[in-house]
Write a structure and sequence with these properties.
six-stranded antiparallel beta sheet; alpha+beta; 253 residues; 19 strands
Length: 253
């Protein structure tokens, strides 16, 4: 298997598969492929993750009930959905990586995706979905999509980093995470009872993204709503003007 990440702002992942080699991804991640690639639907990644319950966990974590399996020989390409980066990670048996809700792009057949969340967190919703992460286990290579600019920190044991939930891209399973509330400031995503952040405590590596989709959507919403209001006002004024012209024409007849 040969994999190459191409591009800068909107990268693509191009993978060449030999006979007998496979990739798996959630439904809808494919960009293009050669006709020799054989596609099939599966609930089993080959890493011990199969069955309806495992598929349900994937759905909670942002994936789909069924996975798409791509079998070689041939070439297949996946494209980033947002400006940012595609990052490869190698997962060994007994290890885990926790990834933001829509971060897992694809992986070799030994990768097992599921869900991770802090069970004790009940303090509101982030982006309408709660603070939910994808959990990648098994053995193999996974490719992760991270939005915007990317920075990483190696946290030694006991060192803590407080991060806005949307800026968490990925971290190793050795990192302890919990959602905490900072009093004294309102948070548009979690409600008006404080600002919620995620406390990440080492040891382990953390990857942070600068442009999470929920924050980008919120930043754009003001301008989109303004355009809608302007369009409505312009349409109303135009309608009134046309009505006056038609009224004058009718009165003149």
């Amino acid at each position: 298997m040969q994999a190459e990440i191409k591009g800068t702002t909107m990268p693509i992942l191009q993978v060449s598969l030999e006979q007998g080699e496979e990739l798996v991804s959630t439904h809808g991640e494919l960009a293009w492929m050669t006709p020799s690639i054989v596609m099939s639907q599966t609930t089993n990644t080959g890493g011990g993750g199969g069955g309806f319950m495992q598929g349900f966990k994937r759905m909670v974590g942002g994936g789909s009930l069924f996975l798409t399996r791509y079998a070689g020989p041939g070439a297949i390409t996946f494209a980033a959905k947002m400006p940012g980066h595609i990052v490869p990670v190698d997962i060994e048996a007994g290890q885990a990586y926790l990834v933001h809700r829509h971060g897992w792009l694809c992986g070799t057949s030994g990768i097992t995706p599921s869900v991770a969340l802090q069970q004790s967190f009940r303090g509101g919703l982030y982006g309408g979905d709660g603070f939910v992460l994808q959990k990648l286990e098994g053995q193999g290579r996974a490719w992760i999509e991270l939005s915007g600019e990317l920075t990483s920190y190696e946290l030694p044991p006991g060192q803590m980093l407080l991060v806005h939930p949307g800026h968490i891209g990925m971290f190793q399973g050795t990192i302890d995470f919990r959602v905490v509330r900072l009093q004294g400031i309102q948070n548009m995503f979690f409600g008006a009872d404080g600002f919620h952040v995620v406390a990440l405590t080492g040891p382990g590596r953390v990857w942070l993204q600068s442009m999470p989709l929920p924050i980008l959507a919120h930043a754009l919403s003001e301008y989109l709503n303004r355009d809608d209001r302007s369009a409505g006002m312009q349409g109303g004024a135009m309608g009134a003007g046309m009505g006056g012209i038609i009224g004058d024409m009718l009165r003149g007849q």
